[in-house]
Amino acid sequence: MNAQPKTAEPAVLDPGDEEVRALELENRQLRDTITALRDEMEGMRINHEDAMQNAASGVHDESTQLKHTINALRDEMETMRFDHEENLQSATAAANDEITQLKQAIASMRDNIETIRFDHEEAMQLATAEARDEAAQLKGTVQSMRDELDQVKFEAEDKIQNMQRDYRDENAHLQDTIRSLRKRLENEARSAARKTRKKTPTKPKK
After folding, report:
1. Inter-residue contact 126 to 108 (CB < 8 Å)
2. pLDDT truncated to tens, each residue of the chain (206 aa)?
3. DSSP calls for the chain
4. Are 72 and 102 in contact (CB under 8 A)?
5. Helix-helix angle 17-83:88-199, to 10 degrees
6. Structure pTM?
């Protein structure tokens, strides 16, 4: 009986490779998302700082204009005093009235400036609170994504382990089947050989 040539068993691919590649792709996408969120937060911070600087510049410009106005009025009053010395009493009264009005105007402007400053501080506090809330939400989102990723990894690893266990069980079953078939073929071959010997006639003795 000739020995049958052994056939090479096909290479078994790791069933976890495709899952691992998918997880790596998802990992890269999550990192890209986190980077985009960080860039967006940085842009918001820069815009907030620009708004603060613009508001402070506006208040400074308005204060400078008020100073210029007061200086111009003082110069005008000084010119009037020198030009109208003969009408000192009337000019003084008019100047006092104008000074009173200017003081009232300055007080009103100061109130307006204080109101603007208060509104600006309130807007800054609100923007800061909103930025904190958004940062907290982003942190929560990142943590949730991490938890979800860990869950996906756990499920993938469990699935791979189950597939590997099933493969080992199936392989063991196939090997048992092959051994059983070989044993059966050997028994059948021996049985056939015995039957052949019985059918062969013996030569008579001389």
Report:
1. no
2. 444 444 444 444 455 678 888 888 888 898 989 998 988 989 888 988 888 888 777 777 888 888 888 888 888 877 766 776 767 677 677 778 888 998 999 999 999 999 998 898 998 898 888 888 888 898 888 898 888 888 988 888 888 898 888 888 888 898 989 988 888 888 888 888 877 777 665 555 55
3. -PPPPPPPPPPPP-TTHHHHHHHHHHHHHHHHHHHHHHHHHHHHHHHHHHHHHHHHHHHHHHHHHHHHHHHHHHHHHHHHHHHTGGGHHHHHHHHHHHHHHHHHHHHHHHHHHHHHHHHHHHHHHHHHHHHHHHHHHHHHHHHHHHHHHHHHHHHHHHHHHHHHHHHHHHHHHHHHHHHHHHHHHHHHHHHHHHHHHHHSPPPPP-
4. no
5. 180
6. 0.30
Q: What angle do CA 186, 189, 193 make, to 5 degrees?
A: 140
Number of other CB atoms surrounding residue 113 within 10 Å: 14
What distance in Å separates the CA atoms of residue 86 and residue 103, rounded to the nearest whole number?
Answer: 26
Which residue in the block uniquely carries the two structure tokens 């048992």? 176
Token pair 């996408």 in the structure block, residue: 29
The number of C-alpha atoms within 13 Å of 96 and in the hemisphere containing its C-beta is 6
Do residues 156 and 26 lie in contact, with contact meaning Cβ atoms separated by under 8 Å?
Answer: no
CA distance 89 to 86: 8
Whether the CB-CB separation of 91 and 81 falls below 8 Å is answered with yes
